[in-house]
Specification:
The complex is a heterodimer of chains A (172) and B (121). Chain A is built from four helices and eight strands, in the order ββααββββββαα. With 172 residues, chain A is of the alpha+beta class. Chain B has a three-stranded antiparallel sheet with strand order 1-3-2. Chain B is rod-shaped and about 80 Å long. Classes of the chains: A alpha+beta (172), B mainly alpha (121). The A-B interface holds A 1-2, 5, 10, 12-13, 16-18, 20, 26, 28, 30, 32-34, 37-39, 41-42, 48, 51-53, 55, 57-58, 129, 131, 145-146, 148, 150-153, 155, 158, 161-162, 164-166, 168-172 and B 9, 12-13, 16-17, 22, 25-26, 28-30, 75, 79, 82-83, 86-106, 108-109, 112, 117.
Chain lengths: 172, 121
Amino acid sequence: MDEKRESEPTPMKNPTTVERKSERELVVTRTFNGPAHIVFEAWTKPELLKQWWTPKSFGISFISCEADVRTGGTYRFVFSHAASEQPVPFFGRYIEVTPHSRIVWTNEESADGAITTVTFEEKDGKTLLVLHELYPSKQALDDAIASGSTGTSGAGEQFEELDKVLLTLGRS
Amino acid sequence: MVQCQRAHLDASFAALSDATRRGILERLGRADASITDLAEKFHMTLTGMKKHVGVLEQAGLVTTEKVGRVRTCKLGPGRLKEEAAWIERYGQLWEARFDELDKIVEALKREERIYGRKKRK
Protein backbone atom coordinates (compact mmCIF):
# COMPACT_ATOMS: atom_id res chain seq x y z
CA MET A 1 0.00 0.00 0.00
CA ASP A 2 2.18 2.68 1.34
CA GLU A 3 5.57 1.08 1.46
CA LYS A 4 7.18 4.04 -0.30
CA ARG A 5 7.41 5.74 3.04
CA GLU A 6 9.96 3.21 4.17
CA SER A 7 12.69 5.15 2.53
CA GLU A 8 12.42 7.89 5.12
CA PRO A 9 15.63 7.95 7.08
CA THR A 10 14.42 6.59 10.39
CA PRO A 11 16.96 4.04 11.52
CA MET A 12 15.66 0.69 12.73
CA LYS A 13 12.17 1.50 11.60
CA ASN A 14 10.34 -1.38 10.02
CA PRO A 15 7.63 -0.90 7.43
CA THR A 16 3.94 -1.06 8.25
CA THR A 17 1.73 -2.66 5.65
CA VAL A 18 -2.04 -2.40 5.36
CA GLU A 19 -4.31 -4.37 3.14
CA ARG A 20 -8.00 -4.85 2.68
CA LYS A 21 -7.68 -8.59 2.54
CA SER A 22 -11.26 -9.28 1.64
CA GLU A 23 -14.64 -7.61 1.70
CA ARG A 24 -14.74 -7.98 5.47
CA GLU A 25 -11.09 -7.92 6.53
CA LEU A 26 -8.27 -5.50 7.07
CA VAL A 27 -4.77 -6.69 7.86
CA VAL A 28 -1.91 -4.62 9.24
CA THR A 29 1.60 -5.99 9.74
CA ARG A 30 4.76 -4.71 11.35
CA THR A 31 7.95 -6.24 12.69
CA PHE A 32 9.39 -5.06 15.99
CA ASN A 33 13.01 -5.35 16.95
CA GLY A 34 12.37 -7.16 20.20
CA PRO A 35 11.15 -10.49 21.55
CA ALA A 36 7.44 -11.34 21.61
CA HIS A 37 7.12 -11.23 25.39
CA ILE A 38 8.16 -7.59 25.37
CA VAL A 39 5.87 -6.55 22.53
CA PHE A 40 3.04 -8.47 24.16
CA GLU A 41 3.69 -6.70 27.43
CA ALA A 42 3.37 -3.32 25.72
CA TRP A 43 -0.07 -4.39 24.47
CA THR A 44 -1.34 -5.76 27.72
CA LYS A 45 -0.22 -3.37 30.45
CA PRO A 46 -2.48 -0.32 30.40
CA GLU A 47 0.30 1.96 31.64
CA LEU A 48 2.39 0.95 28.61
CA LEU A 49 -0.49 0.85 26.14
CA LYS A 50 -1.30 4.39 27.12
CA GLN A 51 2.09 5.55 25.95
CA TRP A 52 1.67 4.53 22.34
CA TRP A 53 -2.00 3.99 21.45
CA THR A 54 -2.85 7.66 20.90
CA PRO A 55 -0.18 9.21 18.67
CA LYS A 56 0.02 12.97 19.03
CA SER A 57 0.24 13.43 15.28
CA PHE A 58 -3.38 12.27 15.13
CA GLY A 59 -4.57 14.83 17.63
CA ILE A 60 -5.80 12.21 20.05
CA SER A 61 -4.99 11.56 23.67
CA PHE A 62 -6.33 9.40 26.45
CA ILE A 63 -8.83 10.78 28.90
CA SER A 64 -8.96 7.38 30.52
CA CYS A 65 -7.60 3.94 29.77
CA GLU A 66 -8.96 0.91 31.54
CA ALA A 67 -7.99 -2.52 30.31
CA ASP A 68 -8.21 -5.86 32.05
CA VAL A 69 -6.25 -7.78 29.48
CA ARG A 70 -7.08 -11.42 30.07
CA THR A 71 -9.54 -13.78 28.48
CA GLY A 72 -13.01 -12.55 29.39
CA GLY A 73 -11.72 -9.18 30.61
CA THR A 74 -13.01 -5.87 29.30
CA TYR A 75 -11.53 -2.56 28.22
CA ARG A 76 -12.75 0.98 27.97
CA PHE A 77 -10.69 3.73 26.36
CA VAL A 78 -11.86 7.31 26.26
CA PHE A 79 -10.06 9.66 23.87
CA SER A 80 -10.14 13.34 23.44
CA HIS A 81 -9.82 14.40 19.84
CA ALA A 82 -8.70 17.77 18.54
CA ALA A 83 -11.57 17.82 16.05
CA SER A 84 -14.27 16.69 18.44
CA GLU A 85 -15.82 18.45 21.43
CA GLN A 86 -17.12 15.19 22.78
CA PRO A 87 -14.91 12.53 24.33
CA VAL A 88 -14.77 9.44 22.13
CA PRO A 89 -15.23 6.11 23.90
CA PHE A 90 -14.04 2.71 22.70
CA PHE A 91 -14.91 -0.42 24.55
CA GLY A 92 -15.23 -4.15 24.27
CA ARG A 93 -14.12 -7.44 25.67
CA TYR A 94 -11.12 -9.70 25.32
CA ILE A 95 -12.24 -12.97 23.80
CA GLU A 96 -8.81 -14.53 24.04
CA VAL A 97 -5.54 -13.52 25.60
CA THR A 98 -2.74 -16.04 25.15
CA PRO A 99 0.52 -14.77 26.64
CA HIS A 100 3.10 -13.67 24.12
CA SER A 101 1.21 -14.94 21.10
CA ARG A 102 -2.36 -13.79 20.64
CA ILE A 103 -4.96 -11.25 21.73
CA VAL A 104 -8.50 -11.17 20.38
CA TRP A 105 -11.03 -8.51 21.29
CA THR A 106 -14.38 -7.07 20.30
CA ASN A 107 -15.07 -3.45 19.41
CA GLU A 108 -18.50 -2.76 20.82
CA GLU A 109 -18.78 1.01 20.53
CA SER A 110 -20.67 0.41 17.31
CA ALA A 111 -23.11 -2.37 16.48
CA ASP A 112 -21.02 -3.25 13.43
CA GLY A 113 -17.66 -3.26 15.16
CA ALA A 114 -14.89 -5.58 14.05
CA ILE A 115 -13.30 -8.45 15.93
CA THR A 116 -9.63 -7.61 16.21
CA THR A 117 -6.99 -10.33 16.42
CA VAL A 118 -3.36 -9.53 17.06
CA THR A 119 -0.73 -12.24 16.80
CA PHE A 120 2.90 -12.04 17.85
CA GLU A 121 5.38 -14.31 16.15
CA GLU A 122 8.96 -14.27 17.36
CA LYS A 123 11.89 -15.08 15.11
CA ASP A 124 15.55 -14.33 15.77
CA GLY A 125 14.74 -11.92 18.55
CA LYS A 126 12.29 -9.98 16.40
CA THR A 127 8.53 -10.08 16.49
CA LEU A 128 6.20 -10.08 13.53
CA LEU A 129 2.93 -8.54 14.55
CA VAL A 130 -0.18 -9.18 12.47
CA LEU A 131 -3.31 -7.24 13.28
CA HIS A 132 -6.43 -8.56 11.67
CA GLU A 133 -9.81 -6.87 11.79
CA LEU A 134 -12.83 -8.88 10.79
CA TYR A 135 -16.03 -6.95 10.25
CA PRO A 136 -19.41 -8.65 10.57
CA SER A 137 -20.23 -7.87 6.93
CA LYS A 138 -18.94 -6.13 3.84
CA GLN A 139 -21.44 -3.40 4.57
CA ALA A 140 -19.98 -2.87 8.04
CA LEU A 141 -16.48 -2.35 6.71
CA ASP A 142 -17.71 -0.19 3.83
CA ASP A 143 -19.61 1.91 6.34
CA ALA A 144 -16.58 2.28 8.56
CA ILE A 145 -14.64 3.44 5.53
CA ALA A 146 -17.40 5.73 4.32
CA SER A 147 -17.81 7.32 7.74
CA GLY A 148 -14.11 8.10 7.72
CA SER A 149 -13.75 6.69 11.21
CA THR A 150 -10.38 5.16 11.74
CA GLY A 151 -11.50 5.68 15.27
CA THR A 152 -9.72 8.98 15.08
CA SER A 153 -10.15 10.58 11.71
CA GLY A 154 -10.85 14.27 11.86
CA ALA A 155 -12.60 13.98 8.54
CA GLY A 156 -15.46 12.16 10.25
CA GLU A 157 -17.94 14.99 10.14
CA GLN A 158 -17.05 15.96 6.63
CA PHE A 159 -17.73 12.46 5.54
CA GLU A 160 -21.17 12.33 7.06
CA GLU A 161 -23.02 13.58 4.02
CA LEU A 162 -21.05 11.31 1.77
CA ASP A 163 -21.61 8.51 4.20
CA LYS A 164 -25.37 8.68 3.85
CA VAL A 165 -25.18 8.35 0.13
CA LEU A 166 -22.52 5.66 0.09
CA LEU A 167 -24.48 3.71 2.61
CA THR A 168 -27.39 3.55 0.23
CA LEU A 169 -25.15 2.69 -2.69
CA GLY A 170 -23.46 -0.12 -0.83
CA ARG A 171 -26.72 -1.97 -0.55
CA SER A 172 -27.11 -2.39 -4.28
CA MET B 1 -1.49 14.02 -2.16
CA VAL B 2 -3.39 15.63 0.69
CA GLN B 3 -4.12 18.62 -1.49
CA CYS B 4 -5.40 16.44 -4.25
CA GLN B 5 -7.54 14.45 -1.82
CA ARG B 6 -9.04 17.65 -0.50
CA ALA B 7 -9.87 18.90 -3.99
CA HIS B 8 -11.48 15.58 -4.67
CA LEU B 9 -13.49 15.71 -1.47
CA ASP B 10 -14.57 19.27 -2.15
CA ALA B 11 -15.86 18.20 -5.53
CA SER B 12 -17.65 15.26 -3.92
CA PHE B 13 -19.29 17.38 -1.27
CA ALA B 14 -20.30 20.04 -3.73
CA ALA B 15 -21.82 17.32 -5.87
CA LEU B 16 -23.61 15.85 -2.89
CA SER B 17 -24.94 19.12 -1.52
CA ASP B 18 -27.92 18.83 -3.81
CA ALA B 19 -30.84 16.54 -2.96
CA THR B 20 -31.55 15.67 -6.60
CA ARG B 21 -27.96 14.61 -7.17
CA ARG B 22 -28.05 12.46 -4.07
CA GLY B 23 -31.24 10.95 -5.42
CA ILE B 24 -29.53 10.25 -8.74
CA LEU B 25 -26.70 8.41 -6.98
CA GLU B 26 -29.15 6.40 -4.98
CA ARG B 27 -31.00 5.47 -8.14
CA LEU B 28 -27.79 4.53 -9.99
CA GLY B 29 -26.85 2.42 -7.00
CA ARG B 30 -29.75 0.19 -7.94
CA ALA B 31 -29.24 0.15 -11.70
CA ASP B 32 -27.57 2.05 -14.50
CA ALA B 33 -29.86 4.48 -16.26
CA SER B 34 -29.88 6.77 -19.26
CA ILE B 35 -30.09 10.53 -18.96
CA THR B 36 -33.61 10.31 -20.40
CA ASP B 37 -34.67 7.78 -17.72
CA LEU B 38 -33.27 9.98 -15.01
CA ALA B 39 -34.85 13.14 -16.38
CA GLU B 40 -38.22 11.40 -16.38
CA LYS B 41 -37.82 9.98 -12.90
CA PHE B 42 -36.87 13.33 -11.47
CA HIS B 43 -39.36 15.32 -13.53
CA MET B 44 -36.70 17.39 -15.15
CA THR B 45 -35.67 18.57 -18.58
CA LEU B 46 -32.92 16.70 -20.37
CA THR B 47 -30.71 19.78 -20.16
CA GLY B 48 -31.25 20.08 -16.42
CA MET B 49 -30.46 16.42 -15.89
CA LYS B 50 -27.35 16.64 -18.07
CA LYS B 51 -26.11 19.43 -15.85
CA HIS B 52 -26.58 17.41 -12.65
CA VAL B 53 -24.95 14.34 -14.16
CA GLY B 54 -22.06 16.55 -15.32
CA VAL B 55 -21.41 17.71 -11.75
CA LEU B 56 -21.48 14.14 -10.47
CA GLU B 57 -19.22 13.05 -13.29
CA GLN B 58 -16.65 15.70 -12.45
CA ALA B 59 -16.60 14.55 -8.86
CA GLY B 60 -15.88 11.04 -10.08
CA LEU B 61 -19.11 9.78 -8.55
CA VAL B 62 -20.69 8.91 -11.87
CA THR B 63 -19.38 7.87 -15.26
CA THR B 64 -21.31 8.05 -18.50
CA GLU B 65 -20.98 6.29 -21.77
CA LYS B 66 -22.69 7.11 -25.00
CA VAL B 67 -23.84 4.22 -27.10
CA GLY B 68 -25.64 5.33 -30.23
CA ARG B 69 -27.96 8.08 -29.15
CA VAL B 70 -28.29 6.98 -25.55
CA ARG B 71 -26.00 8.19 -22.78
CA THR B 72 -25.92 5.66 -19.98
CA CYS B 73 -24.92 6.69 -16.46
CA LYS B 74 -23.42 4.45 -13.83
CA LEU B 75 -21.71 4.87 -10.50
CA GLY B 76 -18.15 6.04 -10.89
CA PRO B 77 -14.88 5.14 -9.22
CA GLY B 78 -15.16 7.95 -6.65
CA ARG B 79 -15.99 5.46 -4.00
CA LEU B 80 -12.81 3.52 -4.57
CA LYS B 81 -10.78 6.65 -4.12
CA GLU B 82 -12.44 7.26 -0.77
CA GLU B 83 -11.56 3.74 0.21
CA ALA B 84 -7.93 4.15 -0.81
CA ALA B 85 -7.72 7.44 1.11
CA TRP B 86 -9.28 5.84 4.17
CA ILE B 87 -6.96 2.85 4.08
CA GLU B 88 -3.99 5.15 3.77
CA ARG B 89 -5.16 7.12 6.79
CA TYR B 90 -5.81 3.92 8.70
CA GLY B 91 -2.30 2.73 7.85
CA GLN B 92 -0.85 6.03 8.99
CA LEU B 93 -2.59 5.69 12.33
CA TRP B 94 -1.11 2.25 12.93
CA GLU B 95 2.26 3.38 11.71
CA ALA B 96 2.24 6.32 14.12
CA ARG B 97 1.23 3.97 16.93
CA PHE B 98 3.89 1.44 16.04
CA ASP B 99 6.59 4.10 15.88
CA GLU B 100 5.75 4.93 19.50
CA LEU B 101 5.57 1.26 20.35
CA ASP B 102 9.08 0.83 18.93
CA LYS B 103 10.36 3.22 21.57
CA ILE B 104 8.68 1.28 24.33
CA VAL B 105 10.06 -2.00 23.04
CA GLU B 106 13.53 -0.43 23.07
CA ALA B 107 13.06 0.85 26.61
CA LEU B 108 11.80 -2.51 27.87
CA LYS B 109 14.70 -4.29 26.18
CA ARG B 110 17.15 -1.97 27.91
CA GLU B 111 15.48 -2.57 31.25
CA GLU B 112 15.65 -6.28 30.72
CA ARG B 113 19.32 -6.15 29.86
CA ILE B 114 20.00 -4.33 33.09
CA TYR B 115 17.67 -6.06 35.50
CA GLY B 116 17.04 -9.39 33.77
CA ARG B 117 13.70 -10.69 32.61
CA LYS B 118 12.34 -12.04 35.89
CA LYS B 119 13.11 -9.10 38.14
CA ARG B 120 11.57 -6.50 35.91
CA LYS B 121 7.81 -6.43 36.77
